[in-house]
Amino acid sequence: MSYGKAALLFVGAHAVLLATAAIAAGTIPAPSTPSVSLPRLSRDGGGAIRLGTLRGRPAIVNFWASWCVPCRAELASLERLAASRSDRLTVIAASVDEDPQIGRAAFGKAYPHLRLAFASLNAVELYGALGMPYSVVFDSRGREVKRVTRAIDWGGADGAQILASANRTSD
């Protein structure tokens, strides 16, 4: 085998290892040019939420479902985060329940610092979600900086690291 082929195999293997580690950690960097736009988000009460209106501060869009136990636990974590940073962070909790009434009932009044929204599960899957919960983090310019493919403690080390990356890219 030539040196060039060996180097190419090494680089390829290294890329696979890095991707595997990111997937195992549950966080993956945002693609540089997403092929599918963020799923349409509908406000509770009607009307669309436009990503452009969120500019000016980092934002998290968390896709969840009433039937998803890890989702419900993560909503509590997101509520604590949003309450502690209400002036510096926007958190949208987008239910993918087929019937908005079910999502609304599960959300209740337990999360006053989160913005309730609704999205199509099919659209979220096309966007890249392989399961729920699925969070997308944006910097203050509205650029996607991270996708989180599992439930995390947003007040813990994982959450702090992700929010730091959103704040860094905001500059």
Q: What is the helix content?
A: 25-40%
CATH homologous superfamily placement = Glutaredoxin
* Structural class designation: alpha+beta
Radius of gyration: 17 Å
What percentage of the residues does DSSP assign to strands (E)? 15-25%
Summarize the main sheet.
Answer: 8 strands, mixed
Would you write up a description of this structure?
This protein is α+β, with helices and mostly antiparallel strands. It has a single domain (29-170), classed as Glutaredoxin. It contains 5 helices and 8 strands, in the order αββββαβαβαββα. Strands 1-8-7-4-5-6-2-3 form an 8-stranded mixed β-sheet. Strand 7 and strand 8 (144-148) form a beta hairpin. The longest helix is centred in the first third of the chain and has 23 residues, at 3-25.
Give a quick set of tags describing it:
eight-stranded mixed sheet, 171 residues, disordered N terminus, single chain, alpha+beta, 20% strand, Glutaredoxin
Short description:
With 171 residues, the chain is of the alpha+beta class. It has helices spanning 3-25, 69-84, 100-107, 121-127, 157-170; strands spanning 27-29, 41-43, 48-49, 59-64, 90-95, 115-118, 134-138, 144-148. It has five helices and eight strands; from the N terminus they run αββββαβαβαββα.
Give the secondary structure arrangement, pairings included.
Blueprint: H1 3-25, E1 27-29, E2 41-43, E3 48-49, E4 59-64, H2 69-84, E5 90-95, H3 100-107, E6 115-118, H4 121-127, E7 134-138, E8 144-148, H5 157-170
Parallel strand pairs: 4-5, 5-6
Antiparallel strand pairs: 1-8, 2-3, 2-6, 4-7, 7-8
